[in-house]
Amino acid sequence: MKFESQPSYSLGQRTPATREVAAGENSGNVTLVSQSALGAINRGRVLQALYDNGPKSRADLARLAGVNRTTITGIVQPMIEDQLLIEGDASPSDVKGGKPARPLYFNPDAPMLGAVLLLPGTIQSCLVALTGEIKAVTKAEFDPHGDTEAFIAAMTKTLTAALSQAQRAPFGIGVASAGMIDSDKGTILTVNLAPVLTGLPLVAILQERFSLPVVIDHHPRALLVGDRWFGPGRGQQNFAAVYTGEVLGGAFFIDGKVYRGLAGSGGELGHSVVQIDGALCNCGKHGCWETVAALPWLRKEAVRMGLPHPRSVTCARLVKETDEGSNAAEELLDRYARNVAFGIVNLQQTLSLNSYVLHGDVAGGGMKAAELIRRHVEQLVVKRPGQEISITVNGIGEGHTALRGAAGLVLSSHLKLVI
Amino acid sequence: MKFESQPSYSLGQRTPATREVAAGENSGNVTLVSQSALGAINRGRVLQALYDNGPKSRADLARLAGVNRTTITGIVQPMIEDQLLIEGDASPSDVKGGKPARPLYFNPDAPMLGAVLLLPGTIQSCLVALTGEIKAVTKAEFDPHGDTEAFIAAMTKTLTAALSQAQRAPFGIGVASAGMIDSDKGTILTVNLAPVLTGLPLVAILQERFSLPVVIDHHPRALLVGDRWFGPGRGQQNFAAVYTGEVLGGAFFIDGKVYRGLAGSGGELGHSVVQIDGALCNCGKHGCWETVAALPWLRKEAVRMGLPHPRSVTCARLVKETDEGSNAAEELLDRYARNVAFGIVNLQQTLSLNSYVLHGDVAGGGMKAAELIRRHVEQLVVKRPGQEISITVNGIGEGHTALRGAAGLVLSSHLKLVI
DNA sequence: AGCAGTTAGTTTGTACCTCGCACAAACTTA
DNA sequence: TAAGTTTGTGCGAGGTACAAACTAACTGCT
After folding, report:
1. DSSP H or E run through B135
2. DSSP character for A25?
3. How far is the CA of A121 from the C1' of D13 (A)?
4. N or C: which end of chain B has fewer CB within 10 A?
C-alpha cells in the first residue's frame, strides 16, 4: 500500500531512514541544532499551538510565541497552500477597530493519522483526523496464544481496511499496546496476557508493509497523549496520566514533551513499592502499588467485607452504592481512593507535576472519585506554599482516548524533534 | 562590585533583564526558536561537549555533534580570541597520517563562576574555574535563628571576599541551599534548621549587589550538577543523584537537562511513601522513605541491636565493622542498604534512568555499600531484557561537589536555553 | 628525496531563517 | 469623510549552518 503527494514542506523527520541520515554517525551525546531543523521545529510548534489553543489568527500566534507576525505568515502559508490548514472567514473579534483577524484551523480533510490499539486478544485500527475525529474504525480479534503469522495477517488486514479509506497519505501510524514496550527499538517486549506478541518487532513490520513512519508505545503513554491532545491535558506543559484497572501504569508529560525514559520504560508505576514486605504481587515482589490500588485488591476486599457481587465491583459501582447510602461501599471507596492516592503522592514528591489525569477503573468513578483521591493526596503530600494539585478524570471511552493518543504519538514524535 | 570586559559573544541570556526582554509578553505555552538564539544554543552545546569529553579537536567535536567542521570553527574561534578556550599544541594522535589535531580546552584563567553552599549555620563561598578547580574559598557562620540583615551582611561579605579574587567578571553566581527552594522565583521557602532564611528572596538580593546572573537551587540538585560536571555523571544524559543523611533528597538529569519540576520542587524524595501507615515522620505523615533510610533510623536500629556507640553510627563505620567481622554490623548494613534500595527502585520504576549516584552517608560506605544497594535494587526492580542498573558513589568531599554543582547550575542555566 | 594519501582547519559562496520596516487592506470611531 | 487601529504581506538586512574547494601538516611507500 503506497500513497502519493507528500506535502511540500517537512513536518520533521518523516521516515526513520531520514532520521538515520540526519543523525549520521553521531554516536556522541551532543546534538547541535541545524539551520534546516530549526524550520521544522518551529513549524511543529506552531501546529502544536494550534492544537493547544484552537483556531487562532496569525497575529495571535505571533503574540503567543513571541515572534514576528511575518514569521508566522512564512510558516503557515505553505501549510495553507498544502491544504493542511484552512484560513477561516474574518470573525467579529472582541477588539475594537482594525482589520478583523482570520482564524487558522486544521483542515478536516487534511492527511490523517493511522492509529492502532492493541490489547490482549483485540486489535482496533482507525484513522484520526487532525481535528481529533475518529474515522474508519475496524476491529479484529486474535488468539493471544496463537501463531505470529496469523496475528500479523490480522493486523495488516484491519490496518489496511482503515488506511484505505484515507484520501491522502497519512502522516504515519501510531500503535498503542498493552504490556512492556521498547519504544526505541519499536518492539513489544512482553505482554503477559498475549504471549504471541512477545518480542515482536512491530514497527519494522508495519513500516515495511505501509511505507509510513510507525511509532509504538505503551498504553498509558497513548492515554497521556490523548489527554494532551483533546482531553484534560490540553495546552498543559506538565501533567501525568495514571491508569488503573487490572494493572496500574502511568505516563508523564514534562516540559512540553512526552517522557519516555530509556527504551521507553518510564512510567511502570504499578511495581513501585508502597508497602515494604507487603502483599505478594504478580511480579514476584512484595508491596507493589498494584497490590493495593488495582481491581484485584478492590475485589478481594469487597469479598472480605461481604459486599454484594464482589467479583464484579468497580469504582463506578462503589460511587453509585455510596450515593445510595451504603456505608460499606463508602468505606471501601475511601480506602481505595487513599491507596490510589499513595502512588500519586509518590509521583508528586518525585516529579512535582501538580496535575494528574486518571483513566481506567477510577475514571469510572467520575468527579466524585477524583475529589476523594485529591483530598487524600492533599493530606499525604508535603505542601509548598501556593501549590495546587489538580486531579481530573478522563471519562471518554478509553478506546477513543488511546486511539487519539496513538495518533498523536506519531505526530508528536515528528513535531517535537529532539533538540 | 562591578566588572568590565564582557566577552564579545553571548553564552546565552546573560542577565535576567535580558531574559525578560527576550521572552517579551510571551505568556503562552509556545516558544519558537529564533535564529539568533540558535547560535547561543549551539555555542552552549559545544562547550558542554568539551566539559563532557575533555579536550577535543574541532574535527572531533564536529564528528561528535554530527555537524560540519566549519561550523565548529565558527563557534570556537571567537572563544579562542576571547581566551575562554585555548588551542593546545598538536598532539601525537592515534590515527596515522594527516595533519595532527589541535585539542581545545578551557583556559584556566578564563572567567570563573561564583559558588555558594548554604547549610544551616554556615556559608561557604568560592570561585570555580571552568576546569573545575576551586579557588578562594571563604567561610562564614551565621545564627540560624538570628537577624535577616545580619545574615545578608555575612553572606555579602564572604561572597565579596571570594569574588574579588577573580580577574575577570565571573559568568554568574550559583547558590546551593538546604531546605525547600523555589528556584523559579529565586527564593528560599523554608529551611527547618535555619528559620532566618525562610522566605528570603536571595537571588534578587545578590543580583542587585553583584550585578551578575544568580541562580539558586536545592542541595541535591547542586550535587547532581557536580556529578554531571566532574563526577560519575560526566557525559551521561540520564542519571539521578540521591543524597542520604539526616534527610533524604534527590535530583534528576533527564535527557541532557537538569530536571526541576514546577517551581523547582521535584526530587523531594524523602517524603515519598514506602510503607503505608508506617513509622511517623518529621513531616507528620507516616511511612516516608526518610523514616527507614536516613541516619535517624539507622541510629535507632543500632541502639535497638546494641551496637557500640550507636548514636554516632554511620554507613562508613558499618562497612568497617563488617569487614572486621561484626555480624550485627553486617546485618544492619544490609537492612540499611535494602531500605535505601526501595527508594531507588521506585525512582527506577518511575523514570527508568538506570544510573544512580549516591551522596551523603551511604557514599561514606564506598563501593561496598553501593554494591550492596545495587544487589537489592536488582532484586526488587522489574527487569527488562538487557537493562543494566548502575549505582555509584561520589566520595569527594561533599562541599566540593556541591560547590562545583552550584557553579555548574549557573553555567547550565545559561548554556541550555529552554527551547 | 619525492610523491601519493590522509586528516585538520580555513576560505568562500550559498541557502535558509527570522526580523524590522513599510505598506495595503479592512474595520471602528468621531 | 478623516483619523486611528489592527491584520496580513513584500522586501531587504543580518545571522547561521553547510558544501565545496583550498592550504597545512603529517605518514608511508618508492
Report:
1. strand B134-141
2. T
3. 62
4. N
